[in-house]
Design a protein that fits this description.
Layout (H helix, E strand, L loop, with lengths): L1 E8 L6 H12 L12 E6 L6 H12 L5 E7 L1
Antiparallel strand pairs: 1-2, 1-3
Keywords: ATP-binding, Cytoplasm, Ligase, Nucleotide-binding, Purine biosynthesis
Pfam families: PurS
Main location: cytoplasm
């Protein structure tokens, strides 16, 4: 089974990469971009039947820094 994990910085955490992208878009002439948040997507190939609890444990222990990041995952 394939699982896609989406990791984003939590609200209130500074996002310097997102700010750099917002600034670059403005420099390229794209107006109206007020904010950009940048995250990451991780795709996993797992054995069929891997439990949501196991996937959440993977996220908590390695894939996301839960102090500053939130995550969600979906089976694809």
């Amino acid at each position: 089974m394939k699982v896609r994990v989406h990791v984003m910085l939590k609200d209130g955490v500074l996002d310097p990469q997102g700010e750099a992208v917002r600034h670059a878009l403005g420099s390229l002439g794209f107006s109206g971009v007020d904010a950009v948040r940048q995250g990451k997507v991780i795709e996993l190939d797992l054995e069929d039947g891997t439990s949501d609890e196991t996937i959440a444990e993977m996220c908590e222990k390695l894939l996301a820094n839960t102090v500053i990041e939130s995550y969600r995952f979906e089976t694809i």
